[in-house]
Fold this sequence. Notes:
Layout: E1 6-9, H1 10-14, H2 17-26, H3 33-43, H4 51-68, H5 74-79, E2 82-83, E3 86-87, H6 90-119, H7 124-129, H8 135-146, E4 151-155, E5 160-162, E6 165-167, E7 172-176, H9 177-180, H10 215-232, E8 233-238, E9 243-244, E10 253-255, E11 257-262
Antiparallel strand pairs: 1-11, 2-3, 4-7, 5-6, 8-11, 9-10
Helix pairs in contact: 2-3, 2-6, 3-4, 3-6, 4-6, 6-8, 6-10, 8-10
Amino acid sequence: MRKGGDSFDLARAMRELPLAVLGPLLGLPEGDRPHLGRLAIAASSDDDPDAEGALFAYLDGLVRERARERGDDLVGTMLGMRHEGVRLTPSAVAANCHRLLLAAAVTLSQVPVATVMELSDNGGYAAWAARPDLLGSGVEESLRWASPTRCVVRTTRCPVELSGVVVPEGQVVVAVLASANRDRRVFADPDRFDVGRRPNRHLAFGTGAHHCVGADVARFALGLLFTELFAAYARLEVVGQPVRMRSVFVDGVTSLPVQGRPRRAPRC
């Protein structure tokens, strides 16, 4: 890479994305968003056991305040919703906001980082940037490749047969999404990042009743992000060792030094 490129920490920069997307949707006060972003990231790791509780307490207080003076944001919409004829309680709305923020903090911050780590050294970044027609399929491949939520834990509600094995009712089951997204029976050459991969039946957003409610928002936000990255930088190259997040459930990076070659000369 030529001298004079922009050097920055991509993982730190991507921490701003989840709240940039969800902050306006939830009507979160702009001044609180950096703090909430830090709490959401910390709650995704094993380093701060108090972060998840602090995040929920903030959201619970915010929802109860909004219940007295409902707005036209997503919080106000959920407060007006009914399930089987019963209005959602403030605690239920706060729980939904809590899960949305945690999911966004994992997906929107980690998918771009994992993608750039893979593509920076093999010419894949520049090749994808030159193919705007593959933006959508490339985003799907980024989601499959990153699989930032390694696994989820569920409990069977009835006996179910999986691959010839009967799992009884009440059994705790760990679904390893990262492994499923590398399944050779589903994906041809699964260890290759292929921006044109079709079909791409990945499970990064789960499936069935537990399919991520924010999947379309995440896809849209990631599409915009990669469009802006490709417009700003002809190349992005990793120039330092990544620092891994310590987490059982999340495959994440807290620091990734990169250098970018700008496409346009900076304005004076």
